[in-house]
Design brief:
Number of domains: 1
Distance between the termini: 42 Å
Structural class: alpha/beta
CATH topology: Rossmann fold
Order of helices and strands: HEEHEHEHHEHEEH
Radius of gyration: 16 Å
Strand order of the largest sheet: 2-1-7-6-5-3-4
Largest sheet: 7 strands, mixed
CATH superfamily: Glucose-6-phosphate isomerase like protein, domain 1
CATH architecture: 3-Layer(aba) Sandwich
CATH class: Alpha Beta
Shape: globular
Strand content: 15-25%
């Protein structure tokens, strides 16, 4: 597969996407960049202080993103974090409840009030990610969403904090999400 862009042009496009990331609260009100980051850091610090659980979910490349950042959240930031896509668990829940409920069924057992979910979906249109967010909200937990593609994708309105990247490139959105999560990990004090 060939690209019409040089590496430097792709890097410039990535930089523009990251610089134009949009943050919003649970009511869809826009937050400026630094205010969004501070809110995100505050949610993670508060979670760690109360010894809550951090759940991370994604599909495909986004599952790879959350698996990668899980290591830093545990090792560097000392968060009680876990993903929910271990193969036998995911295949069991998908088989028993349907793929759209694969994460929400696990969360209905595991999540507690004041736990936190980071829900990552490039398109923001994955039913299993939506249902995971609903499941955590139902028990009184908090949700942070990371999405891209359409500005009105459903996931973008489901979090207490929503981060959206204005791109329809899976690769750029996925790397943008990982870049942002690494940045958070670097700013979150151990």
């Amino acid at each position: 597969m060939s690209s019409d862009f040089t590496l430097m042009e792709e890097a410039e496009q990535f930089q523009a996407i990251v610089e134009k990331a949009q943050f919003s609260d649970h009511e869809g009100n826009p937050l400026d960049y630094e205010k969004g980051i501070q809110k995100n850091l505050g949610m993670l610090e508060s979670l760690r202080d109360r010894c809550g659980n951090l759940f991370l979910v994604g599909n495909g490349g986004s599952a790879g993103v959350v698996s990668h950042i899980l290591t830093d959240f545990i090792n560097v930031n000392k968060l009680n974090a876990r993903t929910l896509h271990e193969s036998s668990l995911l295949s069991c829940m998908s088989n028993d409840y349907g793929y759209e409920n694969s994460f929400s069924e696990s969360l209905s057992t595991l999540a507690r009030e004041k736990d936190l979910l980071i829900a990552v979906s490039s398109s923001g249109c994955s039913p299993n990610i939506h249902n995971a967010a609903k499941s955590v909200k139902k028990v009184g937990g908090e949700v942070i969403t990371l999405s891209g593609f359409s500005h009105d994708n459903p996931l973008r309105s489901m979090g207490d904090l929503n981060i959206w990247l204005d791109s329809t490139s899976y690769g750029l959105v996925e790397i943008g999400h990982l870049f942002y999560l690494h940045y958070l990990s670097g700013r979150l004090q151990p």
